[in-house]
Write a structure and sequence with these properties.
The structure is a single chain. The protein is of the alpha+beta class and 374 residues long. It is built from nine helices and eleven strands. It has an eight-stranded mixed β-sheet. A three-stranded antiparallel β-sheet has the order 6-7-8, covered by helices on one side. A hairpin with an 8-residue loop joins strand 4 (195-202) and strand 5. Helix 1 (2-22) runs parallel beside helix 4 (94-114) and helix 2 packs across helix 3 (48-88). The longest helix is centred in the N-terminal third of the chain and has 41 residues, at 48-88. The radius of gyration is 24 Å and the shape is globular. The protein starts with a helix and ends with a helix. The model is unreliable at 248-253 and 303-312 (pLDDT under 50).
Length: 374
């Protein structure tokens, strides 16, 4: 038994050393010094929102540097404990050693996962939208299931989220929904969900109980920084106002304060109803349009997508990133990474960690391969 735990500790220590090689500690410490200097400026707290962003980034960077050091010391202590127990053949500490080994292994895994967030945008707030595709009422219902999956994931991760827009379907589900989500590495975690999601199931809306295939799209964007200039001309915007509607019986504003903005050159349409002020909803909707335009340009430069708004993939067969099969068997498979699981209920209840980790590793390998070829 003690030999097994000794081997586990040695494996963890080896993985930790490999991890240190991947972490740019010097660069991270330099950024920490810069942020601490900013906090010392007069008037730093005059803008609470900007100050909070600095504090959030600083806390994440300090954890990135300190966590491996702390874990290394605890692994050394555990190794000594296992060695002493083995020499004395002390089985009374067996349960304690197993528990500590498992706990340290879980912490190492979290640090390894955090190291995969290498995109500067990973820590930025997210604007996430869900849209039904081919399939009518079926797809509206599927979109609502995805909406619940994302909300449950946010709750499990203790992310903060605001419902910016929610348009219920005519018969069931939703026509569209938009969330603003904040939290540590929130974009880094949720970008794996960007794309078309396909569902195969026995339709609850079909009296003959036939199998149906439905599609819905999740769009994941980051908010843009104030220092990034995205020009949107007033003459390129069309604004419509309407009364707010809420999800799940929420109390909503009955005045026409909700705003829908259309960017005429691209056809981008966004809506916001989270505020009671029409003016503030318009400002938020405009920021959403700017985020979409910025995302288009970023993805063009990265050459990750062949087209965006004016040449986007159809939300239909052949374009899906992930398939959810509920009949005749149960399986969820990500078509990019190849990762799959039969625990459909757990995933639809918001447990996306395994898909996120598989995507981050796949994406990192893909970028590394592209860099080697450049």
């Amino acid at each position: 038994m003690f030999e097994e735990q000794m081997q586990a500790v040695a494996d963890y220590q080896s993985r930790l050393q490999d991890l240190r090689k991947c972490l740019n500690v010097d660069s991270t410490k330099k950024r920490i010094t810069e942020l601490e200097s900013v906090m010392g400026f007069h008037g730093f707290w005059d803008d609470p929102e900007a100050a909070q962003k600095v504090m959030l980034e600083l806390r994440g960077l300090k954890n990135l540097v300190s966590a491996p050091d702390t874990l290394e010391k605890e692994l050394e202590d555990l190794g000594l404990l296992v060695e002493m127990a083995r020499e004395e053949n002390d089985e009374s500490v067996e349960a304690e050693i197993v528990e500590q080994t498992q706990a340290l292994g879980a912490r190492l895994h979290k640090i390894e996962l955090a190291s995969l967030f290498q995109d500067p945008r990973d820590a930025k707030p997210v604007i996430l939208s869900i849209h039904p595709g081919a399939g009518g009422t079926e797809s509206c219902d599927w979109a609502d299931i995805l909406y619940r999956m994302i909300v449950r994931f946010c709750e499990q991760q203790e992310f903060n989220y605001d419902v910016m827009d929610y348009q219920p379907g005519e018969e069931a589900g939703l026509k569209s929904a938009t969330l603003r989500i904040t939290g540590p590495n929130v974009y880094g975690m949720l970008k794996s969900e960007d794309g078309v999601h396909r569902l195969v199931r026995i339709s609850p809306f079909d009296a003959a109980s036939r199998r149906h295939t439905s599609f819905s799209a999740i769009e994941v964007l980051t908010e843009i920084d104030d220092d990034i200039e995205i020009e949107v001309r007033e003459e390129d915007l069309k604004m419509d106002v309407f009364r707010s509607s809420g999800a799940g019986g929420q109390k909503v504003n009955k005045t026409s304060s909700a705003v829908r903005l259309t960017h005429l050159p691209t056809g981008i349409v966004v809506a916001c109803q989270v505020e009671r002020s029409q003016h503030r909803n318009r400002d938020t909707a405009l920021q959403m349009i700017k985020s979409k335009l910025y995302d288009i340009e970023v993805k063009k430069k990265e050459a990750e997508l062949a087209a965006m708004r004016n040449g986007q993939q159809d939300v239909a067969w052949g374009s899906q990133i992930r398939s959810y099969v509920l009949h005749p068997y149960q399986l969820i498979k990500d078509h990019r990474t190849g990762f799959e699981t039969g625990n459909v209920g757990r995933v639809l209840d918001g447990e996306l960690d395994e898909f996120i980790e598989a995507y981050l590793k796949w994406n990192l390998e893909r970028r590394s391969a592209a860099a080697r070829q450049a």
